[in-house]
Design brief:
The complex is a heterodimer of chains A (about 210) and B (about 350).
Chain A lengths: L6 H11 L10 H6 L4 H25 L8 H23 L1 H13 L4 H9 L6 H31 L1 E2 L2 E2 L12 H22 L11
Chain B lengths: L28 H11 L1 H11 L1 H24 L10 H11 L8 H15 L12 H12 L1 H4 L2 E2 L12 E2 L2 H8 L1 H8 L2 H10 L11 H13 L8 H15 L10 H6 L3 H8 L10 H21 L6 H19 L15
Antiparallel strand pairs in B: 1-2
Helix pairs in contact in B: 1-4, 1-11, 2-3, 2-11, 3-4, 3-5, 4-5, 4-6, 5-6, 6-16, 8-9, 11-14, 12-14, 12-15, 15-16
The chains are: A mainly alpha (about 210), B mainly alpha (about 350).
Chain lengths: ~210, ~350
């Protein structure tokens, strides 16, 4: 438990240093599955942002009352609760999108990044830092999905957020799952290159936890 | 066919330590690459003969884009630019051989870029790529431009024919309309086989002329650049399985000869599946590799969504090449433990 918390570091860590998709290589399945369009990617990101913030907050509040022996099932209950809330809200307000990706909203329960932040951060930090960490990680995830969505929708459908820009479909492969992996790999490589070139980083870990 | 990894000029260490025996001969990466390109020449000439000026353009653009991509990516990665080793030239040529003659010219350009930059250099350059670059290039454009990539024209009688007639390849005809339709077009089985053998049919540039491809393949076999271990099991498996399951009148009624001569089988079996880098190097593993390619090809042709499966079959088997090599490497005699001994 840290006494003085540096929120700036937490936020930077969530978005850049340990970006869930590009640095930790977690939750790649939804990242590839829903990013054939910017809008879907954005809404998925918002859902994850909300779930992670609330889960981290709840876990942090309950951290002194949960027996360590049953902490993982307890976290899963908390996660499932918040995912259900998100799912119901989405179903009520975003009918069209929900039909497309409702399944993936349910799957947020199984996202490694949500559980890992609950276990690694929220279970040993106070309420506010935990929620900030959840929000920062969620924001990192959101940004990654939007970035992928822009890249794939523009190349695959020639449009952005559903609005046609090019008037044609340059590279159909980009909106297919294959193209998702292409986009993911290229973008990860590009970000590593940027990091090494301009920020003196060492590139991402090989990922895959 | 790409070169063995040891011929990378930019990575020559000061001191080379490797396990004997060491054999030296006159072969270099560049010599092999240029010879294989030369072996493709008959097929390339036949494609120009049958498809005319558009074929020339596709080949030229593909070559130019390949060479330009290679030079650009090597320059950007600060590696020595090795255009003269012929590997980029060969990739470009192979890709062109796999495209329809009437493809718009940005297709060979995009395909070459994907082949050279993404498939080869992003995986570490020549000798480190997992998949055959030309085939990934083709798969990429096939999936990206499905309509353009599956519209073939009939061979033109004149070199400068402008109004090429769009038609389906024999495999598409067989899949969608059956053997009867094929016979209606080619009249007799014998005429069908003859046209397939010569290459007088719709298809990708370099895949149509069986005789020209066999000529090049025979030359490569004579020079011992390729062996029978991959191509023969590959083609034989396709023939056998097509004969067994390819017919409409139950088992053993398929047309093996037709299946062996159509599509990109001959081109794929001799020039793509024999790639040193992306195929296995243990002999027994090569045979299994060939059989696997053949089985997957027939599976895709008969049951899959695509009329032709050679490309995906080879790419899928590329994944298994290291596994096959590891599982089937020869036993080291005179040692209690063969562990850690590389072939």
């Amino acid at each position: 438990m840290s006494d003085s918390v540096n929120y700036g570091t937490i936020v930077k860590n969530g978005i850049f240093g340990e970006n869930p998709v590009f640095r930790l290589a977690l939750s790649l399945c939804p990242a590839v599955a829903v990013t054939s369009g910017v809008k879907n990617g954005f809404l998925m990101g918002v859902a994850v942002l909300f779930v992670m913030t609330m889960v981290n907050g709840t876990v942090s509040l309950l951290r002194n009352y949960i027996n360590p022996k049953v902490r993982i099932p307890s976290y899963m209950f908390i996660i499932a609760t918040w995912v259900t809330v998100t799912d119901q809200v989405m179903a009520a307000t975003q009918r069209a999108v929900y039909k497309d990706m409702g399944l993936y909203i349910m799957l947020i329960v199984a996202f490694a990044i949500v559980l890992s932040r609950a276990e690694m951060f929220a279970s040993r930090n106070k309420l506010l830092p935990s929620m900030v960490d959840g929000a920062a990680m969620g924001l990192g995830f959101l940004l990654a999905l939007v970035l992928l969505g822009v890249f794939r929708e523009f190349l695959g459908k020639g449009s952005l957020w559903g609005y046609p820009i090019l008037g044609q479909k340059p590279l159909l492969i980009m909106i297919l799952p294959t193209g998702g992996f292409f986009a993911m790999g290229l973008m990860m490589g590009w970000l590593n290159w940027l990091d090494r070139k301009f920020f003196g980083g060492t590139g991402a870990s090989s990922g895959g936890h | 066919m790409e070169a063995p990894a040891l011929a990378k000029p930019q990575e020559h260490p000061k001191l080379i330590v490797s396990i004997g025996p060491h054999m030296h001969d006159q072969e270099t990466t560049a010599k092999i690459m240029w010879t294989v390109s030369g072996a493709l020449l008959p097929a390339a000439l036949m494609s120009v003969y049958f498809f005319g000026m558009p074929a020339v353009m596709v080949i030229l653009v593909s070559l130019a884009a390949s060479l330009a991509s290679e030079a650009a990516v090597q320059w950007m990665l600060k590696k020595p630019v090795t255009l003269s080793d012929g590997s980029a030239f060969l990739t470009g040529l192979l890709l062109a051989m796999n495209l329809p003659s009437n493809a718009p010219l940005y297709i060979p350009a995009v395909g070459s870029f994907v082949a050279i930059v993404i498939t080869k250099h992003l995986f570490g350059g020549l000798g480190y790529n997992i998949f055959n670059p030309a085939l990934i290039g083709r798969a990429f454009v096939l999936i990206s431009f499905p309509k353009l990539m599956t519209t073939y024209v009939a061979p033109a009688s004149q070199f400068m024919a402008v109004d090429a007639k769009t038609t389906a390849t024999p495999l598409v005809l067989l899949k969608e309309e059956g053997m009867a339709k094929l016979l209606e077009i080619f009249h007799t089985k014998a005429a069908l086989y003859q046209d397939l053998f010569l290459g007088n049919r719709a298809g990708s540039l370099g895949e149509t002329s069986v005789i020209a491809l066999l000529l090049g393949a025979a030359f490569l076999m004579m020079k011992r650049y390729i062996t029978w271990h991959v191509p023969v099991p590959f083609i034989a498996t396709v023939g056998l399985l097509a004969w067994m399951f390819g017919g409409k009148e139950g088992l053993l009624s398929g047309d093996a000869i037709f299946h062996m001569m159509s599509g990109g089988l001959i081109l794929g079996a001799f020039f793509m599946a024999t790639d040193y880098v992306t195929g296995p190097s243990v002999r027994a593993a090569q045979v299994v590799f060939g059989v696997g390619c053949g089985a997957l090809t027939v599976l895709i042709r008969l049951k899959g969504g695509y009329p032709e499966g050679v490309m995906f079959a080879i790419l899928l088997m590329n994944c298994f090449a290291p596994l096959l090599d590891r599982g089937m490497k020869s036993r080291v005699f005179g040692k209690a433990e063969a562990k850690g001994v590389k072939k």
